[in-house]
Amino acid sequence: MARVELQITRRTFLKSALAGGGGLALAACGLEPAQAAAGVDLSPTWFREGKIKTSYTCCSMCPWSCGIVVQSVDGVVHKVDGNPADPK
Fold first, then answer.
1. Is the pTM here over 0.90, yes or no?
2. Residue 15 is part of a domain; what is its CATH number?
3. Does the residue 28 lie in any domain?
4. CA–CA separation, 5 vs 80, rounded Å?
């Protein structure tokens, strides 16, 4: 087998590792501080349009009938999630 030599120095490796760690730390901060500083609301507009109705039902796309949670505003479905309380 041919031997492969990497052209990376210890200094380059440490720079890359620190840059990646710093990027992950900044990503973990999220957008909340930026929203507060700018005074804007970046939440989905359907949250602000009216009263949210939450319905619990089941999906009928397969024989297992998994539980789902449906969120709607004024009869229009905006979000469908799996029900975490469903035992399946």
1. no
2. 2.20.25
3. yes
4. 51
Helix (H, G, I), strand (E, B) or coil at 56: strand
1 exposure class (CB count in 10 Å sphere: 0-12, 13-18, 19+): exposed
Segments forming the whole domain that contains residue 14? 10-82
Per-residue pLDDT of the chain (88 residues), as tens digits, is 677 777 888 999 999 999 999 888 877 776 666 666 666 666 666 666 668 899 999 999 999 999 999 998 888 898 999 999 988 7
Q: How many domains does the chain have?
A: 1
CA–centroid distance for 47 within its chain = 17
Residues 6+ apart with CB under 8 A from 59: 65, 66, 67, 68
Integer CA distances (angstroms), 68 to 3, 12, 30, 44, 49, in order: 54, 49, 28, 21, 23
